[in-house]
Design brief:
By secondary structure, the chain is mainly α. It has seven helices and no strands.
Length: 159
């Protein structure tokens, strides 16, 4: 058994490189996908309706039926479109960075790892404090898994 564990520890550098850049590339693709959904959905605030209603302490039906809130749907649409555009931009930047650098140097890897780690920490803070029942939690877990997978396999790459 110990002999088998020793053989598994040796990781092919090509495989390690692929398992370093592909998860980060997937983060970019997923970010673009979420941004596209928020940019194109007719009522994007309904995508995570229940956690939003818990945060607002009222339903959207009640909120939008008030005469004073007549412009609220337009405002929410603009805010979510801005969020979607931001997500699209970040996703394309991540993909562009991975494509250009191929995460071939230690500084390129550590730079993107640090940025994504701090960003994910901020997202976890916001989601867990304000939207703990968000249907996007599995997406957040997947993004975290991709980041840690990439960090783990980057340890097998040369500097």
């Amino acid at each position: 058994m110990a002999h088998l564990v020793y053989k598994v520890k040796i990781v092919n550098k090509h495989i390690a490189h692929n398992l370093t850049w592909i998860p980060i590339f997937l983060i970019g693709i997923l970010t673009i996908s979420l941004g596209a959904v928020w940019c194109t959905h007719e009522q994007p605030w309904l995508l995570d309706k229940s956690p939003n209603e818990v945060l607002l302490q009222t339903s959207f039906d009640v909120l939008l039926s008030e005469k004073i809130n007549i412009g609220l749907p337009s405002y929410l649409k603009v805010v979510y479109r801005f969020l979607g555009l931001y997500m699209l931009t970040i996703g394309f930047l991540v993909i562009g960075y991975v494509y250009i650098t191929r995460l071939g140097t230690k500084i390129a890897r550590n730079c993107i790892f640090l940025i994504l780690f701090v960003t994910l920490l901020g997202i976890y803070f916001l989601v867990l404090n304000y939207l703990p029942s968000s249907p996007l939690m599995p997406v957040l877990y997947f993004l975290t898994f991709c980041l840690f997978l990439s960090v783990f396999f980057s340890k097998y790459l040369p500097d």
